[in-house]
Specification:
The chain has 402 residues and is of the alpha/beta class. It has 2 domains: 2-145, no CATH class; 153-397, Purple Acid Phosphatase, chain A, domain 2 (4-Layer Sandwich). The protein has helices at 2-26, 30-56, 66-103, 121-130, 132-147, 187-199, 218-227, 247-256, 291-302, 321-327, 351-355; strands at residues 152-160, 171-175, 203-207, 233-237, 265-271, 274-280, 311-315, 332-335, 361-365, 368-372, 389-397. A hairpin with a 2-residue loop joins strand 9 and strand 10 (368-372). Helix 1 (2-26) runs antiparallel to helix 2 (30-56) and helix 9 packs across helix 10 (321-327). The N and C termini lie far apart (53 Å). The model has no long low-confidence stretch (mean pLDDT 90).
Length: 402
């Protein structure tokens, strides 16, 4: 894993150097060259600094301004990649033009020494091209910074045939993918707690990724969870980001916090005099082709704990757990993990459907329902058509829903 990380960093820095040379040679304008050089140097040193801070686990990464980290991430993950793809697409076209010119014996245009204005059209276009990397990066960074403080409330009314009539109108605040850490911190977290508490929900359920990756942020995440108010109960499960630094320590500390933490476990909460069983699925640490099968096996084992007279709700960070839950006839599954696709061109095109069968909102199979939250926080600073959200769910008996 460490070798892979250093390979990626080395590739990014190499591309930084290549594009630094390309854009510096694009224009003879001294100011443009200086600005491009400053931009590229800051991006390279910033990348090294952010990675070094994270790998050292010393906590000094918190002193790097969020705007700077956001710009570094956007440049290296979007800007650099787009430029490289465009270049790869243009190379065969330019080579083809060169070959055609040679084949037709078309001489290259001869430049004449004619007095040109200080700022010709060609020089302006070259200057604009050289300024493209910082302009693109800082424009997207500004958009990302505004988004990082925005959270919406999305509401669903869920008619459930198996719902006991006493539970008709029961409300759930689903909080997922808080990712407390690098990009999600400060006022937006206080705002999130306030929004949850204003719902006055019967249950508050946290469906994984409490922290982004650093255990140094865990105490903050736990304080936020404790500050959330529910009329009858609160519970939490783990997500993949919770386990990045040290899975054993994360699980031990959350267990010791006293917050109901379900690791392939269940708990029964009495809501309006009726038992509601929350079944919490642990993160399945298997990757590749066998992943979905392993998730299904974990769900089947967890459902062995079902209490016959309790209304069950499955909390599973990965939404593909819904397949096994629906096959078992479970009425409601709550998931996160997908961030709504993070970058979506529209509701059906983007990373969501490319990576997941279920990525945002309500899905149904027979009488079983799945809710996938876009989540609140971010491991990547930019969202497109996948806004951060807290979900407000109202459970209704099928006949009461109309």
């Amino acid at each position: 894993m460490v070798r892979f990380i250093f390979t990626i960093i080395g590739l990014m820095i190499s591309l930084d150097l290549v594009w630094w040379i390309v854009f510096a040679r694009l224009t003879n304008h001294g100011v443009a060259r200086v600005l491009v050089s400053i931009f590229m140097i800051v991006m390279m040193l910033g990348l090294i600094g952010v990675i070094a801070a994270r790998m050292s686990r010393s906590g000094w990464e918190r002193f790097i301004p969020k705007f700077a980290v956001t710009a570094i991430v956007i440049w290296h993950s979007i800007g650099l990649g787009l430029l490289s793809l465009i270049a790869l697409a243009l190379i065969p076209i330019l080579l083809g033009q060169k070959i055609v010119r040679i084949a037709r014996h078309v001489p290259s245009p001869i430049t004449q020494s004619v007095e040109a204005p200080d700022w010709s059209r060609r020089e302006f276009l070259r200057f604009a091209g050289a300024m493209l990397p910082p302009a693109f990066t800082f424009s997207l960074t500004g958009i990302a910074m505004a988004q990082l403080n925005n959270v919406r409330i999305r509401r669903f009314v869920l008619p459930i045939p198996e719902l006991p009539k006493e539970l008709d109108g029961t409300t759930i605040a689903q909080v997922s993918d808080m990712h407390v850490g690098r990009f999600t911190n400060g006022d937006v977290l206080k705002k999130m707690v306030r929004m949850v508490n204003e719902m006055r929900a019967d249950l508050v359920l946290l469906t994984g990724d409490l922290i982004n990756d650093a255990l140094a942020d865990l105490d903050t995440g736990l304080e936020l969870a404790r500050a959330m108010e529910a009329r009858f109960g609160l519970a939490i499960i783990e997500g993949n980001h919770d386990l990045i630094e040290n899975p054993t320590e994360f699980e031990a500390r959350v267990k010791a916090s006293g917050i109901p933490f379900l690791l392939d476990e269940s708990t029964v909460i009495t809501v309006r005099g009726v038992p509601v069983q929350l079944l919490g699925l642990s993160w399945t640490r298997i990757y590749g082709k066998g992943r979905d099968a392993a998730i299904a096996t974990s769900v089947q084992r967890l459902l062995e704990q079902r209490v016959a007279d309790a209304f069950p709700i499955l909390m599973a960070h990965h939404p593909h757990a819904f397949d096994a839950a629906a096959s078992a006839g479970l009425p409601l599954t709550l998931s996160g993990h997908t961030h709504g696709g993070q970058l979506m061109l529209n509701e059906q095109l983007g990373f969501g459907p490319a990576l997941f069968r279920y990525w945002s909102g309500l899905y149904e199979r027979g009488q079983s329902k799945l809710i996938v939250s876009n989540g609140i926080g971010n491991w990547f600073p930019l969202r497109l058509n996948a806004p951060a959200e807290i979900l407000h769910l109202t459970l209704r008996t099928a006949d009461a829903s109309g």
